[in-house]
Design goal:
The structure is a single chain. The chain is mainly beta. The protein contains five helices and 70 strands. A hairpin with a 2-residue loop joins strand 28 (427-436) and strand 29 (439-442). The longest helix is centred in the C-terminal third of the chain and has 11 residues, at 907-917.
Length: 1012
C-alpha cells in the first residue's frame, strides 16, 4: 500500500490584487509508499471535491486530475480547472477539501483525506466581514515595524486598481493609484467630518494582528514566527523546506541582496551528502531563509530541490538526502532577504556507486567440544538494504553460504552467531557474510579447532565377598578430566577384557568411589571384572581382576529337637544353615527304629527353600525307640542333619477320654486385614480330634463364639489365616483350639496389632524439563493406617530417601503430582515416590531420569575446560570452575597484608595481587595462576562471593565435596576467608557450606575458575 502525505495545505491564490475571487486553488502533496520511500516520476490519480458545511457535507464542486510526481515525490496542481468552481459562494462556508487518490493512476481511489479550508483570503471577503483568517500567502500586505498609521508610506502599493463592487461600497472604494500620496485625506471621499478616523493603528499579539478600530487578521497555526526587521514584517511557516516565508515591505534604503558562499561538499554517501555554506553579508536586510539548492543540471535554483538551514548570517550546513547512487549533482547555496534571493558559487559532486556490503569477521570465542561463537560487523551495506547476514563455516578454507550457516537478521552493525553440531578436536574455517541485491560479501577468514575430548580416569576396586553366585566389586573415578561422568559401573565376563556389551552394573556417574553387588553368577566359574566410566569422550575401563565363584556343595543343616512325644506322634524339623550354592528342592525329616535313617525310611516332605521348617512324625508304635534326622536336597546331594532319638509313650487307657492338648503358633500380621497363625495338637485326649483351628477377637481370651477358622482334624501342626481384622493399631487376640468328643481346649493366647506400612506405592514421571521434573506417585493401599505424608524424593545417587531432597504433598492415599525444581540441565537423578503412615515410610519403584538439555549455555554444563557455574545477562558469557579440586594448598604469606575483596568479580584482581606481593611458592593463588587445564591457562582463585556462588548454583551436583575451600579474599594479615562444610567450625558463620576465616598456613582444597 502507498500513502499520500500533504506537503502544503490548500492555498487560495488571487490572480491579482483587484480583490476578485480567485480562479483556482494551488495544491501540492508528497506521495510515499508503505515503507516511507518516495514515489518518484510516476503518474497518480486524484479526485478532488469541495464540500460545504462539514467534512461529510454536500459536494458543491468536483474534478479529477492525473499529475506526475517529480524526483522528490511532489505533485503540484491547481484546483478549479473545470466549470462550476466560480459559482462557489465562499462566504457561505465553512468549506472542506476532500482528496481521493489512486497511487497507480487509475480510478481505484484507495486513499481518502478531508481537511477544512480554514481561511479564504480574498479582499472582498475581508471587506465584508472585517475579520478573517490569515491565509498562506506569498508577499503579504506590509505591516510597519511599529504600530502606527499609514502616513508617509507612499509608494508601497502602486499600479493596482480595485474594481470589486463590494469593495467599491467601502470608504476606500474610490481610491486610485494617484491618491497614494494623500492616502489619509482624499478630498471628497470622507464619509464624515473627520479626516483621520479612517487611520488604523496595527498591533501584534501572539498569533493575531489587530486593527485599532476593530477587526483583526489571525495567523494560521502553521505560522511559526512573526519578526520585524527595519521596515519589513516577516512570517515564517512550518513547511519542509521552509523557504517560502512571506514578508511585507520594500527594504531599507540602500538594501541589497545577501552574499552567500558555497563552501564544500562532504560526507558523500550513496543517497546523502553534506553541504557547508556561509552567509557573509545580509545586504542590510534580515536573511529570512538560507540553504542549498541542488539538481542534476547546472545552476540549481529554488525551483529545484532545496534544503533550508535556518535564518540570518554565518556558517551553516545542510544534510542532503534522497539522492540517487552514482549520480552527479550540482549544488549552490542560497540566501533570501526582502530584496530577493541570491546564490553562491556552484559546485558538483557524485554520490557513491552501490556495491556489495563491507564487513569483518569477529574473533572466535566460547569454543567447546561441539560448538563455538563468532559473528561480524557490517560497516557499510553497499547502499542497498541487507537481505541477509550471518556466518558460514566449513572444514575447508574460504567457506561460503553453500556451507553451514547461521543467519542473524538484516541489520548493519555488529552481531553474534553460533556454530553448533561441530566435531570435537577438528579444525574449522569461518567467515562472516552479508548479502544485498548486488550479491554476497564475506569478511576476513578465521580458523579455530574445537576442544578435544578426554576420557575419565578410573581404577577397579578389589573383589570381595566371593560366593557361589555373587561377588562384591566396584571402582573409583579419580577424575572426569573436564567432561562430567554420565554413568559408571562394573562389567564382567568369563573372557578377559569385559566391556559394557557384556554383563554389567551401571549407575549415574560422578567422581569418587562406588560399590556394587554382582549376582546371577555360576558357581565354580572363573570371571574377569573391570570398572568403567562414561563421559562425552567415551567409555574408559579400569584395571582387570579375576575371581572364581565357590563350587556348589551339599546343604548344611541341623535337626530340631523332638517335642510333643506321645504313643503315636511326635514333632521335629530342621534348620538349614547353607544351601551349598544350589537351591533346596526338598526338605523334611526321616525316622526309623534303626540308627541313621534315610529317605528310604519313613519321611516327611516339608517344601523347598532354605528356610527353617517343622515336621510331624506320625504312625509311631507305643514304647518304641526311634531315630530321627532332618534332611535337605539340592542339585549336588542330599544331606542329613544330626541324629536324635526318642521313645514313644505307652498307650493310656483312661476310664474315659479327656480334653485335647493344643498349643498356639506365633501370629504374624501379613496385610492390613490378615494375619498368619496356627497351632500344634500334641494329644487327642483319647478321642479323635474332630476340629482344630484358631479363634480371635479384640477382647481377651477369644473362643469359638468369636471369629474362628477350621483347619482340619487330627494331631500335629496346622496353619491358619486370620482375616477381617481392621483398624490401625488395634490389638487382636488369637488362640488355637482343638475339639474331641469330650471337650474343646484352647492354646495359649497371643496377639497382633493391626496396621502395616503402605503397599503398592509406584513412582510416576510425567515430564522432564531442563531445570525441573514433573513427577508423582500412586498409593493404592495405606496399610490400614492413614497416610500422613507423601511425595517424591530424589538425589544424584541411587535409592533416595526422605533425608535427601523431597517434596511434601500432604496426607491421603491415591494418585498425586509433585514438581521437582531447582535441578541442573543434562544431569541424571534418581527419583522415588514415598508414603508415610504411623507404621513408617515405604518407597515406590526407583526411576532414573536425566533432565533435558536446553539450547545455549546452561549451569553445570561441561564447557570451555570446566563446569559453568554463572551466566551473565547476555547468556553468552559467564564463569567456569574446575570439576574437582586441583589439590590442597596453603593461602601463603602469613602476616603480609594484601589488599583483596570478597566481592563477586574480584577474584581475578585478587589473584593478581597475591601473586605479585607473595613470593612464596605452592600457594593457592599461584596454583590457579599457573594452572593449564583442558587447553586453558587463564584460571584464577575465586573471591569469597564467587566461591559461594559455585556452591549455590552447582555445588550439590558433584563439584563441592565435604571439605574446606580457599578463596582469594583476605580478612587480615594472618587470616583469609574460606568456605567449609559442616557446622560450628571456628570462625564459620554456620550452614552446610559456611563462610569461615582461618590461618593462612592451613592447607585447604582449591577450585580454580575462569571467564568465558
Amino acid at each position: 500500500m502507498k500513502r499520500i502525505f500533504t506537503l502544503f495545505a490548500a492555498v487560495l491564490v488571487a490572480a491579482s490584487l483587484s480583490a476578485q475571487a480567485p480562479g483556482k486553488i494551488s495544491y501540492q502533496a508528497v506521495i510515499r509508499n508503505s515503507s516511507g520511500s518516495l514515489i518518484t516520476n510516476q503518474a497518480v490519480a486524484l479526485r478532488i471535491s469541495i464540500l460545504q458545511g462539514s467534512a461529510d457535507g454536500l459536494a458543491v464542486y468536483s474534478e479529477t486530475q492525473t499529475p506526475v510526481t517529480n524526483a522528490n515525490g511532489l505533485v503540484t496542481l491547481e484546483i478549479g480547472v473545470q466549470s462550476g468552481f466560480d459559482d462557489i459562494d465562499w462566504a457561505n462556508g465553512p468549506y472542506f477539501i476532500k482528496t481521493e487518490t489512486d497511487p497507480e493512476g487509475g480510478v481505484d481511489y484507495t486513499i481518502t483525506g478531508t481537511s477544512q479550508i480554514l481561511s479564504v483570503p480574498y479582499a472582498i471577503y475581508a471587506e465584508k466581514t472585517g475579520s478573517v483568517d490569515y491565509g498562506m500567502l506569498i508577499n503579504k500586505p506590509f505591516i510597519p515595524a511599529q504600530t502606527s498609521d499609514l502616513t508617509n508610506n507612499s509608494g508601497f502599493i502602486t499600479g493596482y486598481t480595485e474594481t470589486d463592487p463590494v469593495f467599491g461600497d467601502s470608504p476606500a472604494g474610490t481610491i486610485t493609484n494617484d491618491d497614494i500620496e494623500n492616502w489619509n485625506n482624499k478630498p471628497g471621499t470622507m464619509v464624515d467630518s473627520s479626516a483621520v478616523n479612517e487611520l488604523q493603528v496595527l498591533s501584534i499579539s501572539r498569533d493575531t494582528i489587530y486593527l485599532s478600530n476593530g477587526g483583526f487578521v489571525k495567523l494560521p497555526n502553521y505560522v511559526t514566527s512573526v519578526q520585524i526587521h527595519n521596515d519589513s514584517l516577516y512570517v515564517t511557516y512550518q513547511q519542509d523546506p521552509p523557504i517560502n516565508e512571506g514578508y511585507i515591505g520594500r527594504g531599507a534604503p540602500g538594501s541589497m541582496l545577501a552574499t552567500v558562499v558555497t563552501d564544500s561538499v562532504s560526507d558523500i554517501a550513496y543517497t546523502t551528502a553534506r553541504v557547508d555554506a556561509n552567509v557573509t553579508a545580509n545586504g542590510g536586510e534580515f536573511v529570512m531563509s538560507r540553504g542549498i539548492c541542488l539538481s542534476t543540471s547546472v545552476n540549481p535554483t529554488l525551483n529545484n530541490t532545496c534544503y533550508a538551514s535556518g535564518t540570518g548570517t554565518g556558517t551553516y550546513s545542510a544534510a542532503v538526502t534522497g539522492l540517487n547512487p552514482n549520480t552527479t549533482y550540482f549544488v549552490r547555496s542560497f540566501a533570501s532577504n526582502a530584496i530577493g534571493t541570491s546564490y553562491g558559487s556552484e559546485t558538483s559532486f557524485t554520490t557513491l556507486p552501490q556495491t556489495t556490503p563491507t564487513l569483518t569477521t569477529h574473533q572466535v570465542y566460547n569454543i567447546s567440544l561441539t560448538s563455538a561463537m563468532s559473528g561480524g560487523n557490517i560497516s557499510d551495506d553497499g547502499g542497498l538494504p541487507l537481505l541477509e547476514r550471518g556466518i558460514c563455516w566449513s572444514l575447508s578454507p574460504a567457506p561460503t553460504i553453500a556451507d553451514s550457516t547461521d543467519l542473524q537478521g538484516t541489520a548493519t552493525g555488529s552481531f553474534n552467531a553460533l556454530m553448533d553440531k561441530l566435531t570435537s578436536g577438528t579444525k574449522y574455517y569461518v567467515r562472516a557474510y552479508a548479502k544485498n541485491a548486488l550479491g554476497t560479501a564475506y569478511g576476513n577468514e578465521l580458523s579455530f579447532t574445537t576442544n578435544a575430548l578426554s576420557l575419565a580416569s578410573i581404577t577397579t576396586n578389589a573383589v570381595s565377598n566371593i560366593s557361589y553366585t555373587t561377588v562384591t566389586c566396584g571402582g573409583t573415578v579419580t577424575a572426569d578430566n573436564g567432561y562430567p561422568v554420565s554413568s559408571r559401573g562394573i562389567c564382567w565376563s568369563t573372557a578377559t577384557a569385559p566391556t559394557t556389551s557384556n554383563s554389567k552394573y551401571s549407575e549415574a556417574g560422578s567422581v569418587g568411589s562406588y560399590t556394587a553387588s554382582v549376582t546371577g553368577l555360576t558357581s565354580s566359574t572363573t570371571y574377569y571384572i573391570r570398572a568403567f566410566a562414561v563421559n562425552e569422550a567415551g567409555t574408559v575401563y579400569g584395571n582387570e581382576y579375576s575371581f572364581t565363584t565357590l563350587a556348589n556343595t551339599a546343604p548344611v543343616l541341623t535337626t530340631k529337637a523332638i517335642t510333643g512325644i506321645s504313643s503315636n506322634i511326635a514333632s521335629s524339623g530342621g534348620n538349614i544353615t547353607s544351601d551349598g550354592g544350589s537351591a533346596i528342592t526338598a526338605k523334611g525329616v526321616c525316622w526309623s527304629v534303626n540308627p541313621a535313617p534315610t529317605l528310604s525310611d519313613n519321611k516327611t516332605t516339608d517344601g523347598t527353600g532354605s528356610s527353617s521348617y517343622n515336621s510331624n512324625i506320625t504312625g509311631l508304635s507305643p514304647l518304641s525307640l526311634y531315630y530321627v534326622r532332618a534332611y535337605a536336597t539340592n542339585s549336588v546331594a542330599t544331606t542329613y542333619g544330626n541324629e536324635l532319638s526318642f521313645t514313644s509313650t505307652d498307650l493310656v487307657y483312661p476310664p474315659s477320654s479327656t480334653a485335647p492338648i493344643v498349643a498356639t503358633a506365633s501370629s504374624v500380621l501379613i496385610t492390613s486385614s490378615t494375619a498368619s497363625s496356627g497351632g500344634y495338637v500334641s494329644s487327642d485326649g483319647g478321642s479323635a480330634i474332630l476340629a482344630r483351628g484358631v479363634c480371635w477377637s479384640t477382647t481377651l481370651n477369644p473362643t469359638l463364639a468369636n471369629n474362628h477358622t477350621t483347619d482340619g482334624t487330627g494331631l500335629g501342626y496346622f496353619t491358619s489365616t486370620v482375616t477381617g481384622i481392621t483398624g490401625c493399631n488395634t490389638v487382636h487376640y488369637i488362640r488355637a483350639y482343638a475339639c474331641n468328643s469330650t471337650d474343646t481346649t484352647y492354646g495359649p493366647q497371643n496377639s497382633v496389632t493391626t496396621g502395616n506400612l503402605p503397599s503398592g506405592v509406584t513412582t510416576i514421571i510425567t515430564k522432564t524439563l531442563p531445570d525441573s521434573i514433573i513427577a508423582g506417585g500412586n498409593i493404592p493401599d495405606d496399610g490400614g493406617c492413614s497416610i500422613t505424608q507423601k511425595g517424591v524424593c530424589w538425589s544424584l545417587t541411587a535409592n533416595p530417601t526422605t533425608s535427601n531432597s523431597k517434596t511434601t504433598q500432604g496426607a491421603g492415599s491415591g494418585t498425586f503430582v509433585s514438581y521437582i525444581t531447582g535441578l541442573l540441565p543434562n544431569v541424571t537423578y534418581y527419583v522415588r515416590a514415598y508414603a508415610t503412615n504411623s507404621k513408617g515410610t515405604v518407597y515406590g519403584d526407583q526411576q532414573v531420569v536425566t533432565t533435558a538439555i536446553p539450547s545455549g549455555i546452561y549451569l553445570g554444563q561441561s564447557y570451555a575446560g570446566g563446569r559453568v557455574f554463572y551466566i551473565d545477562g547476555t547468556r553468552e558469557h559467564g564463569l567456569i570452575c574446575t570439576s574437582v579440586s586441583i589439590g590442597n594448598f596453603v593461602w601463603g604469606c602469613n602476616g603480609t597484608d594484601i589488599a583483596t575483596s570478597i566481592d563477586f568479580g574480584s577474584g581475578e584482581t585478587n589473584t593478581t595481587a597475591i601473586t605479585a606481593f607473595c613470593t612464596e611458592t605452592n600457594t593457592a593463588a599461584k596454583a590457579c595462576d599457573t594452572l593449564n587445564l583442558n587447553g586453558y591457562s587463564d584460571w584464577y582463585l575465586p573471591s569469597l562471593n564467587e566461591l559461594n556462588l559455585v556452591y549455590n548454583n552447582i555445588g550439590k551436583h558433584g563439584v563441592i565435596t565435604n571439605t574446606n575451600y580457599w578463596s582469594s579474599s583476605q580478612c587480615g594479615p594472618g587470616y583469609a576467608y574460606y568456605s567449609a562444610s559442616g557446622y560450628g567450625s571456628c570462625g564459620c558463620s554456620g550452614g552446610w557450606f559456611s563462610t569461615c576465616y582461618g590461618g593462612k598456613t592451613n592447607a585447604f582444597a582449591v577450585l580454580a575458575i575462569r571467564k568465558f
